[in-house]
């Protein structure tokens, strides 16, 4: 798994956009008291359930791998000329 250049910022943006997506979909919303791990897990599972991302293999499901998947998802949602997609 090759780390993306702006992976932390992409993950932060994925959580922001994912929260809006989950709320509009009626799946729930993030609370201020929710941990980062809970947010990542919830959003990862929601996107897998909605078939917006391909699930990780069962033995590969971990916090770093889910974060990477969310960052990849976000990088694909942004336009090519977006600052977070610059390499």
From TrEMBL:
Pfam families on file: DUF5062
InterPro entries: DUF5062, DUF5062_sf
Superkingdom classification of source: Bacteria
Protein name per the record: DUF5062 family protein
Organism: Candidatus Litorirhabdus singularis
